[in-house]
TetR/AcrR family transcriptional regulator
Amino acid sequence: MPRDGTATRSRILDSAERLVKVNGYAATSVDQVITESGTSKGAFFHHFPSKLDLARTLVQRYADADVAELREAMAHAEAATDDPAERVSAFVRWFEERDEALLGEESNCLYISILTERELVVDGTSDPILGAVVAWREELTRLIGAALGDREDAPDPEALADHVFVTFEGAFLLARSTGDPTTMRRQLRALRQMLEAVLR
Amino acid sequence: MPRDGTATRSRILDSAERLVKVNGYAATSVDQVITESGTSKGAFFHHFPSKLDLARTLVQRYADADVAELREAMAHAEAATDDPAERVSAFVRWFEERDEALLGEESNCLYISILTERELVVDGTSDPILGAVVAWREELTRLIGAALGDREDAPDPEALADHVFVTFEGAFLLARSTGDPTTMRRQLRALRQMLEAVLR
DNA sequence: CTCGTTCCAGACTGCCTGGTCTGTTTGTAG
DNA sequence: CTACAAACAGACCAGGCAGTCTGGAACGAG
């Protein structure tokens, strides 16, 4: 086997992820990706048969990392306490205490760039996003359902679970329009306080 | 003054809004807009000096309508009851009971398409979005602040106010990835229940 | 009716785009 | 050392893109 191309491939993916998160998919040209990654046309189309194929790889990689982070937060919450309601709090707080990668001003979510373009949804490029959404939903529905118990006026645990995803995506957008780097942290805090109130 | 061009201009704006909401701004070509609106290159560039200028007009128009809807919901909530907490509930419920335009499967938000592309943010195209965000924040902070009273452990009313905007945008994205048309309604319901719990 | 302005149609242009192709280098297997 | 395939580099291409330009049609003013 000849020289190793995985480093080049990773540089392309990293540059592409950054550019797509910042500018969107359609507004990002492969030439931009090539320039920023310091590679070439030949290298790009050697590793990815088309720009769309890059998008698919990108989404899959990002969604995998997203689910991994979910598991991590979930493990943390379950290790922290046995009380179901407190576990929900611990779960959200895990993200509140995250460093600048998630909370900073330049933070972005690849999902937004992909879901913005309907073509990428109908052709299946966004499928891994749905996979991640379902993973979040299932894990959190379990956690929240346990905290809700069997109250008669209990709200829909699945909707509450989905609302965590909703808060993340909505906060990313709000942060973009305001330019306020504290947005994500404040929204996560508000989410946690509301969940604590509804689970009380 | 010669013949009236406002109808043509409106057709262009309507088609463009639909296309941009569905496909994003960069992925929407001027030719597409021309075809869908049944006009021509000449008509388009007569009414809009550039594609970017179309985007600016589009965002301004959409944000104005958005703020108008805010005022409408606010007036409804204030007319419904005098109790501050119940006003918050009435406000959210106003949107829950909306018809398919907001809640249907094909519902979209122009804000997402615009905020996705950073260029449109830095060059000021997204400024009307910030105006709308601030309008929502101010009105809702007032409403929620009144409902919170002066409790010592009270959560940040501004963050809760912003969370309404966050819920809308996040739910739009969630609906896109799942394809479930009940998403928006369920998320609004969850938001209302959480607000009711935290304001109790 | 004439004149002038607005409104619009569509051919046209140059640039940028995603993608191809040819050639060269790099490493490994035998 | 030879052979061969993977890993690039960069010239090249066809199509699509935003934007221009010219000509004509539709009105109101005088």
